[in-house]
Amino acid sequence: MESMRLFSLSGLFVLTLVALMIPASIGRGWQRCRFPAIYNFGDSNSDTGACNAAVAEIPSPYGQTFFKQPSGRASDGRLIIDFLAENLGLPYLSAYLDSIGTNFRHGANFATGGSCIQPACGYGPFNLATQVSQFIHFKARTTALYNQLCLNRKIAAHCIDLPRPDDFSKAIYTLDIGHNDLAYGYLQHRAKGRIRASIPNMLTLFSQAVHVRKHGMLLEACKKCTVLYSEGARIFWIHNMDPIGCLPFSVMMYQPKAHNVDRNGCVMPQNEMAKEFNRQLRDKVSQLRAQLPSAAFTYVDVYSAKYALISDAKQQGFVDPRTFCCGSYGHHGHHVDCGKKVNGTVYGSSCRYPSRHISWDGIHFTEATNLWVANSTLNGFFSDPPVSIDKACHRPQP
Protein backbone atom coordinates (compact mmCIF):
# COMPACT_ATOMS: atom_id res chain seq x y z
CA MET A 1 0.00 0.00 0.00
CA GLU A 2 1.36 3.42 -0.97
CA SER A 3 0.81 4.96 2.49
CA MET A 4 2.91 2.20 4.05
CA ARG A 5 5.87 3.07 1.82
CA LEU A 6 6.32 6.54 3.25
CA PHE A 7 8.65 5.34 5.97
CA SER A 8 12.23 5.86 4.89
CA LEU A 9 15.05 3.98 6.60
CA SER A 10 15.64 7.07 8.73
CA GLY A 11 11.97 7.07 9.73
CA LEU A 12 12.11 3.45 10.81
CA PHE A 13 15.29 4.19 12.73
CA VAL A 14 13.60 7.08 14.53
CA LEU A 15 10.63 4.93 15.51
CA THR A 16 12.98 2.17 16.72
CA LEU A 17 14.77 4.68 18.91
CA VAL A 18 11.43 5.92 20.20
CA ALA A 19 10.52 2.40 21.29
CA LEU A 20 13.88 1.84 22.96
CA MET A 21 13.68 5.11 24.88
CA ILE A 22 10.46 4.17 26.69
CA PRO A 23 11.33 3.51 30.35
CA ALA A 24 11.67 -0.26 30.73
CA SER A 25 10.20 -0.17 34.23
CA ILE A 26 6.83 1.03 32.94
CA GLY A 27 4.69 -1.89 31.87
CA ARG A 28 7.27 -4.58 32.60
CA GLY A 29 5.42 -7.74 33.44
CA TRP A 30 2.03 -6.25 32.63
CA GLN A 31 -0.31 -8.32 30.55
CA ARG A 32 -1.84 -6.92 27.39
CA CYS A 33 -5.19 -5.27 28.09
CA ARG A 34 -8.13 -6.98 26.43
CA PHE A 35 -10.41 -4.08 25.64
CA PRO A 36 -13.77 -5.36 24.39
CA ALA A 37 -14.84 -1.95 23.07
CA ILE A 38 -13.84 1.64 22.32
CA TYR A 39 -16.00 4.69 23.01
CA ASN A 40 -14.70 7.82 21.35
CA PHE A 41 -15.57 11.51 21.80
CA GLY A 42 -14.19 14.30 19.64
CA ASP A 43 -14.31 16.33 16.45
CA SER A 44 -13.39 15.76 12.80
CA ASN A 45 -9.99 14.36 13.75
CA SER A 46 -11.79 11.18 14.85
CA ASP A 47 -15.27 11.40 13.27
CA THR A 48 -15.96 8.20 11.33
CA GLY A 49 -19.29 9.22 9.82
CA ALA A 50 -21.42 11.28 12.21
CA CYS A 51 -21.11 14.64 10.47
CA ASN A 52 -21.58 12.94 7.11
CA ALA A 53 -24.82 11.33 8.32
CA ALA A 54 -26.32 14.19 10.31
CA VAL A 55 -24.98 17.49 8.97
CA ALA A 56 -23.42 17.47 5.50
CA GLU A 57 -22.12 14.89 3.05
CA ILE A 58 -18.37 14.39 2.87
CA PRO A 59 -17.88 13.73 -0.87
CA SER A 60 -15.28 12.06 -3.05
CA PRO A 61 -12.26 12.22 -3.19
CA TYR A 62 -12.41 11.88 0.60
CA GLY A 63 -11.75 8.24 1.45
CA GLN A 64 -10.03 7.45 -1.84
CA THR A 65 -6.77 5.98 -0.52
CA PHE A 66 -8.02 3.17 1.71
CA PHE A 67 -11.79 2.89 1.46
CA LYS A 68 -11.86 3.69 -2.29
CA GLN A 69 -15.00 5.76 -1.67
CA PRO A 70 -16.23 8.41 0.78
CA SER A 71 -16.26 6.91 4.28
CA GLY A 72 -17.50 9.84 6.37
CA ARG A 73 -13.94 10.66 7.41
CA ALA A 74 -12.25 14.02 6.82
CA SER A 75 -9.22 12.43 5.19
CA ASP A 76 -8.23 10.43 2.15
CA GLY A 77 -8.24 7.28 4.30
CA ARG A 78 -7.99 6.08 7.86
CA LEU A 79 -7.78 8.25 10.97
CA ILE A 80 -5.72 7.74 14.13
CA ILE A 81 -8.80 6.23 15.83
CA ASP A 82 -8.92 3.63 13.03
CA PHE A 83 -5.29 2.64 13.58
CA LEU A 84 -5.94 2.55 17.32
CA ALA A 85 -8.78 0.08 16.75
CA GLU A 86 -6.58 -2.01 14.46
CA ASN A 87 -3.86 -2.10 17.12
CA LEU A 88 -6.34 -3.44 19.68
CA GLY A 89 -7.73 -6.02 17.26
CA LEU A 90 -11.14 -4.34 17.12
CA PRO A 91 -13.26 -3.30 14.11
CA TYR A 92 -13.49 0.31 12.99
CA LEU A 93 -15.98 2.29 15.04
CA SER A 94 -19.45 2.98 13.73
CA ALA A 95 -20.67 6.54 14.20
CA TYR A 96 -23.48 6.81 16.75
CA LEU A 97 -25.40 9.19 14.45
CA ASP A 98 -25.15 6.92 11.41
CA SER A 99 -28.00 4.39 11.32
CA ILE A 100 -26.90 2.64 8.11
CA GLY A 101 -24.98 -0.58 8.57
CA THR A 102 -23.97 0.16 12.14
CA ASN A 103 -22.51 -2.41 14.50
CA PHE A 104 -21.99 -1.37 18.11
CA ARG A 105 -20.80 -4.70 19.47
CA HIS A 106 -17.31 -3.34 20.07
CA GLY A 107 -18.05 0.31 20.80
CA ALA A 108 -19.39 3.47 19.24
CA ASN A 109 -18.04 6.78 18.00
CA PHE A 110 -19.70 9.96 19.27
CA ALA A 111 -17.17 12.30 17.65
CA THR A 112 -18.72 14.71 15.15
CA GLY A 113 -16.95 17.09 12.79
CA GLY A 114 -17.13 20.71 13.95
CA SER A 115 -17.65 19.79 17.61
CA CYS A 116 -16.28 21.84 20.48
CA ILE A 117 -15.88 21.41 24.20
CA GLN A 118 -17.90 24.56 24.82
CA PRO A 119 -21.62 24.64 23.98
CA ALA A 120 -21.59 28.01 22.19
CA CYS A 121 -18.70 27.34 19.84
CA GLY A 122 -20.44 28.11 16.56
CA TYR A 123 -19.35 25.22 14.34
CA GLY A 124 -21.86 22.52 15.22
CA PRO A 125 -24.50 21.41 17.75
CA PHE A 126 -22.73 18.30 19.05
CA ASN A 127 -20.46 19.67 21.78
CA LEU A 128 -18.75 17.40 24.28
CA ALA A 129 -21.61 17.50 26.81
CA THR A 130 -24.06 16.53 24.05
CA GLN A 131 -21.83 13.64 23.00
CA VAL A 132 -21.66 12.39 26.58
CA SER A 133 -25.45 12.66 26.86
CA GLN A 134 -25.72 10.61 23.66
CA PHE A 135 -23.49 7.99 25.25
CA ILE A 136 -25.68 7.87 28.38
CA HIS A 137 -28.74 7.32 26.20
CA PHE A 138 -26.90 4.74 24.10
CA LYS A 139 -25.77 2.79 27.17
CA ALA A 140 -29.25 2.78 28.74
CA ARG A 141 -31.05 1.75 25.54
CA THR A 142 -28.60 -0.95 24.47
CA THR A 143 -28.47 -2.41 27.99
CA ALA A 144 -32.27 -2.56 28.10
CA LEU A 145 -32.39 -4.22 24.67
CA TYR A 146 -29.71 -6.71 25.62
CA ASN A 147 -31.52 -7.70 28.80
CA GLN A 148 -34.79 -7.94 26.89
CA LEU A 149 -33.57 -9.88 23.84
CA CYS A 150 -30.22 -11.46 24.39
CA LEU A 151 -30.93 -13.54 27.49
CA ASN A 152 -33.54 -15.46 25.52
CA ARG A 153 -31.75 -18.02 23.36
CA LYS A 154 -34.60 -18.15 20.86
CA ILE A 155 -34.07 -14.54 19.82
CA ALA A 156 -30.41 -14.10 20.76
CA ALA A 157 -29.48 -13.68 17.09
CA HIS A 158 -30.83 -10.15 17.32
CA CYS A 159 -28.00 -9.27 19.74
CA ILE A 160 -25.05 -9.63 17.40
CA ASP A 161 -24.72 -5.84 16.95
CA LEU A 162 -25.33 -4.87 20.59
CA PRO A 163 -22.63 -4.17 23.19
CA ARG A 164 -22.49 -6.40 26.25
CA PRO A 165 -23.50 -4.48 29.41
CA ASP A 166 -20.46 -5.76 31.32
CA ASP A 167 -18.14 -4.37 28.65
CA PHE A 168 -18.78 -0.70 29.43
CA SER A 169 -16.52 -0.81 32.49
CA LYS A 170 -13.83 -2.73 30.58
CA ALA A 171 -13.79 -0.53 27.47
CA ILE A 172 -11.30 2.20 26.67
CA TYR A 173 -12.66 5.76 26.42
CA THR A 174 -10.80 8.03 24.01
CA LEU A 175 -11.14 11.82 23.85
CA ASP A 176 -9.74 14.11 21.14
CA ILE A 177 -11.43 17.51 21.18
CA GLY A 178 -10.78 21.23 21.64
CA HIS A 179 -9.33 22.26 18.28
CA ASN A 180 -12.52 23.99 17.15
CA ASP A 181 -12.77 25.93 20.40
CA LEU A 182 -9.46 27.66 19.73
CA ALA A 183 -10.10 28.01 15.99
CA TYR A 184 -13.47 29.64 16.62
CA GLY A 185 -11.90 31.88 19.24
CA TYR A 186 -9.42 33.18 16.69
CA LEU A 187 -12.14 33.83 14.13
CA GLN A 188 -14.24 35.71 16.69
CA HIS A 189 -11.61 37.66 18.58
CA ARG A 190 -8.05 37.21 17.34
CA ALA A 191 -7.16 38.56 20.78
CA LYS A 192 -4.77 36.17 22.52
CA GLY A 193 -5.77 37.43 25.94
CA ARG A 194 -9.45 36.59 25.49
CA ILE A 195 -8.69 33.18 24.01
CA ARG A 196 -6.24 32.34 26.78
CA ALA A 197 -8.78 33.43 29.39
CA SER A 198 -11.33 30.97 27.97
CA ILE A 199 -9.10 27.90 28.36
CA PRO A 200 -9.84 27.24 32.08
CA ASN A 201 -13.58 27.15 31.34
CA MET A 202 -13.01 24.76 28.43
CA LEU A 203 -11.09 22.40 30.68
CA THR A 204 -13.63 22.66 33.48
CA LEU A 205 -16.25 21.47 30.99
CA PHE A 206 -13.85 18.77 29.79
CA SER A 207 -13.32 17.57 33.34
CA GLN A 208 -17.04 17.59 34.03
CA ALA A 209 -17.56 15.24 31.11
CA VAL A 210 -15.43 12.72 33.00
CA HIS A 211 -16.59 13.32 36.56
CA VAL A 212 -18.23 15.97 38.76
CA ARG A 213 -17.43 17.46 42.16
CA LYS A 214 -20.11 19.03 44.30
CA HIS A 215 -19.52 20.75 47.64
CA GLY A 216 -16.07 19.19 47.70
CA MET A 217 -17.43 15.63 47.44
CA LEU A 218 -16.93 13.21 44.59
CA LEU A 219 -20.16 12.04 43.03
CA GLU A 220 -18.81 8.56 42.36
CA ALA A 221 -22.10 6.94 43.43
CA CYS A 222 -24.34 9.41 41.64
CA LYS A 223 -26.89 7.62 39.49
CA LYS A 224 -28.11 10.70 37.63
CA CYS A 225 -24.84 12.36 36.72
CA THR A 226 -24.36 12.52 32.95
CA VAL A 227 -20.63 11.91 33.25
CA LEU A 228 -18.51 9.05 32.02
CA TYR A 229 -17.02 7.92 35.32
CA SER A 230 -20.40 7.53 36.99
CA GLU A 231 -21.44 5.38 34.03
CA GLY A 232 -18.62 2.94 34.64
CA ALA A 233 -15.81 4.34 32.47
CA ARG A 234 -12.44 3.54 34.05
CA ILE A 235 -9.82 3.66 31.29
CA PHE A 236 -9.20 6.97 29.49
CA TRP A 237 -6.88 7.74 26.55
CA ILE A 238 -6.76 11.53 26.07
CA HIS A 239 -5.20 13.32 23.09
CA ASN A 240 -3.98 16.89 23.49
CA MET A 241 -4.24 19.75 21.01
CA ASP A 242 -2.58 19.63 17.56
CA PRO A 243 -0.06 22.29 16.48
CA ILE A 244 -2.89 24.25 14.85
CA GLY A 245 -0.52 27.02 13.77
CA CYS A 246 1.08 24.55 11.35
CA LEU A 247 -2.12 23.83 9.42
CA PRO A 248 -1.84 25.21 5.87
CA PHE A 249 -5.24 26.88 6.44
CA SER A 250 -3.83 28.77 9.45
CA VAL A 251 -0.73 29.86 7.55
CA MET A 252 -2.84 31.21 4.67
CA MET A 253 -5.75 32.54 6.72
CA TYR A 254 -3.70 34.67 9.05
CA GLN A 255 -1.01 35.68 6.55
CA PRO A 256 1.59 35.76 9.29
CA LYS A 257 4.43 38.23 9.37
CA ALA A 258 8.01 36.99 9.48
CA HIS A 259 8.37 37.52 13.23
CA ASN A 260 5.25 35.41 13.89
CA VAL A 261 6.49 32.37 11.97
CA ASP A 262 8.83 29.68 13.27
CA ARG A 263 11.50 27.81 11.28
CA ASN A 264 8.88 25.40 9.93
CA GLY A 265 6.60 28.18 8.67
CA CYS A 266 4.05 27.65 11.49
CA VAL A 267 2.12 30.55 13.05
CA MET A 268 3.72 30.88 16.47
CA PRO A 269 0.91 32.69 18.35
CA GLN A 270 -1.54 29.90 17.47
CA ASN A 271 0.89 27.18 18.46
CA GLU A 272 1.67 28.98 21.70
CA MET A 273 -2.04 29.00 22.51
CA ALA A 274 -2.27 25.30 21.70
CA LYS A 275 0.68 24.61 23.99
CA GLU A 276 -0.96 26.59 26.79
CA PHE A 277 -4.15 24.58 26.34
CA ASN A 278 -2.07 21.40 26.48
CA ARG A 279 -0.25 22.50 29.63
CA GLN A 280 -3.53 23.12 31.41
CA LEU A 281 -5.07 19.91 30.01
CA ARG A 282 -2.16 17.90 31.37
CA ASP A 283 -2.66 19.48 34.79
CA LYS A 284 -6.38 18.69 34.61
CA VAL A 285 -5.66 15.05 33.76
CA SER A 286 -3.27 14.87 36.72
CA GLN A 287 -6.02 16.21 38.98
CA LEU A 288 -8.49 13.63 37.67
CA ARG A 289 -5.91 10.90 38.21
CA ALA A 290 -5.54 11.95 41.86
CA GLN A 291 -9.29 12.30 42.41
CA LEU A 292 -10.18 8.98 40.78
CA PRO A 293 -7.49 6.48 41.79
CA SER A 294 -9.54 3.53 40.52
CA ALA A 295 -9.42 4.97 36.98
CA ALA A 296 -6.49 4.89 34.54
CA PHE A 297 -5.69 8.08 32.61
CA THR A 298 -3.20 8.30 29.74
CA TYR A 299 -2.38 11.77 28.40
CA VAL A 300 -1.08 11.56 24.82
CA ASP A 301 1.10 14.38 23.49
CA VAL A 302 -0.10 14.34 19.89
CA TYR A 303 1.17 17.93 19.52
CA SER A 304 4.80 16.85 19.91
CA ALA A 305 4.37 13.85 17.61
CA LYS A 306 2.86 15.92 14.79
CA TYR A 307 5.31 18.77 15.23
CA ALA A 308 8.20 16.28 15.09
CA LEU A 309 6.86 15.01 11.76
CA ILE A 310 6.40 18.53 10.41
CA SER A 311 9.96 19.41 11.46
CA ASP A 312 11.38 16.33 9.73
CA ALA A 313 8.94 16.13 6.83
CA LYS A 314 11.50 15.79 4.04
CA GLN A 315 13.45 13.03 5.77
CA GLN A 316 10.19 11.14 6.37
CA GLY A 317 9.27 11.20 2.69
CA PHE A 318 6.83 14.14 2.70
CA VAL A 319 6.74 17.34 0.67
CA ASP A 320 6.61 20.84 2.18
CA PRO A 321 4.19 20.56 5.17
CA ARG A 322 2.69 23.94 4.28
CA THR A 323 1.18 22.43 1.14
CA PHE A 324 -1.90 20.20 1.00
CA CYS A 325 -3.39 17.69 -1.38
CA CYS A 326 -7.06 18.45 -2.03
CA GLY A 327 -8.87 21.74 -2.69
CA SER A 328 -7.29 25.19 -2.85
CA TYR A 329 -6.93 28.46 -1.01
CA GLY A 330 -6.48 31.58 -3.07
CA HIS A 331 -6.02 35.27 -2.37
CA HIS A 332 -8.75 37.51 -0.96
CA GLY A 333 -10.47 34.60 0.77
CA HIS A 334 -11.19 32.63 -2.41
CA HIS A 335 -11.43 28.98 -1.38
CA VAL A 336 -12.42 25.80 -3.20
CA ASP A 337 -13.42 22.97 -0.86
CA CYS A 338 -11.97 19.53 -1.45
CA GLY A 339 -14.47 17.64 -3.59
CA LYS A 340 -16.54 20.70 -4.49
CA LYS A 341 -18.64 20.22 -7.62
CA VAL A 342 -20.12 22.87 -9.89
CA ASN A 343 -22.55 21.60 -12.56
CA GLY A 344 -21.11 18.12 -12.14
CA THR A 345 -17.49 19.20 -12.51
CA VAL A 346 -15.18 18.56 -9.55
CA TYR A 347 -13.07 21.66 -8.89
CA GLY A 348 -11.60 20.62 -5.56
CA SER A 349 -9.81 17.55 -6.87
CA SER A 350 -7.09 15.49 -5.22
CA CYS A 351 -3.36 15.57 -5.87
CA ARG A 352 -1.75 12.54 -7.48
CA TYR A 353 0.17 11.28 -4.44
CA PRO A 354 -1.70 11.98 -1.17
CA SER A 355 0.79 9.91 0.85
CA ARG A 356 3.49 12.52 0.19
CA HIS A 357 1.47 15.23 1.91
CA ILE A 358 1.04 15.80 5.63
CA SER A 359 -2.16 17.80 5.17
CA TRP A 360 -5.06 16.43 3.14
CA ASP A 361 -7.29 19.50 2.69
CA GLY A 362 -5.46 22.27 4.55
CA ILE A 363 -7.17 21.48 7.88
CA HIS A 364 -7.21 17.70 8.21
CA PHE A 365 -4.44 15.14 7.82
CA THR A 366 -3.75 12.45 5.24
CA GLU A 367 -3.90 8.76 6.06
CA ALA A 368 -0.11 8.68 5.71
CA THR A 369 0.22 11.27 8.47
CA ASN A 370 -2.32 9.54 10.68
CA LEU A 371 -0.41 6.27 10.25
CA TRP A 372 2.90 7.92 11.14
CA VAL A 373 1.44 9.60 14.22
CA ALA A 374 -0.34 6.41 15.31
CA ASN A 375 2.89 4.41 15.04
CA SER A 376 4.66 7.11 17.04
CA THR A 377 2.09 7.44 19.85
CA LEU A 378 0.45 4.07 20.40
CA ASN A 379 3.73 2.68 21.74
CA GLY A 380 3.62 5.13 24.68
CA PHE A 381 6.64 7.31 23.90
CA PHE A 382 4.57 10.51 23.76
CA SER A 383 2.31 9.51 26.66
CA ASP A 384 2.07 10.29 30.36
CA PRO A 385 2.51 7.76 31.86
CA PRO A 386 4.61 6.23 29.05
CA VAL A 387 2.46 3.15 28.49
CA SER A 388 1.42 1.69 25.15
CA ILE A 389 -2.24 1.54 24.18
CA ASP A 390 -2.41 -2.17 24.95
CA LYS A 391 -1.22 -1.51 28.54
CA ALA A 392 -3.42 1.51 29.19
CA CYS A 393 -5.73 -0.37 31.57
CA HIS A 394 -2.94 -0.59 34.14
CA ARG A 395 -2.29 2.12 36.73
CA PRO A 396 1.42 2.76 37.42
CA GLN A 397 2.33 3.11 41.07
CA PRO A 398 3.41 6.65 42.01
UniProtKB/TrEMBL annotation:
What InterPro entries does this protein map onto? GDSL (IPR001087), SGNH_hydro_sf (IPR036514), SGNH_plant_lipase-like (IPR035669)
Q: Where is the signal peptide?
A: 1-27
Tell whether Amino-acid biosynthesis is among the UniProt keywords: no
Q: Does the keyword Membrane apply?
A: no
Q: Which domain of life is it from?
A: Eukaryota
- Per UniProt, which keywords does this protein have? Glycoprotein, Hydrolase, Signal
Instruction: Cite the Pfam families for this sequence.
Output: Lipase_GDSL
Gene3D superfamilies found in the cross-reference section: SGNH hydrolase
The record's PANTHER family line, in alphabetical order, gives: GDSL-LIKE LIPASE_ACYLHYDROLASE, ZINC FINGER FYVE DOMAIN CONTAINING PROTEIN
The family annotation for this protein states: Belongs to the 'GDSL' lipolytic enzyme family.
Q: What is this protein called?
A: GDSL esterase/lipase At3g27950 isoform X2
Q: What is the lineage of its organism?
A: Eukaryota, Viridiplantae, Streptophyta, Embryophyta, Tracheophyta
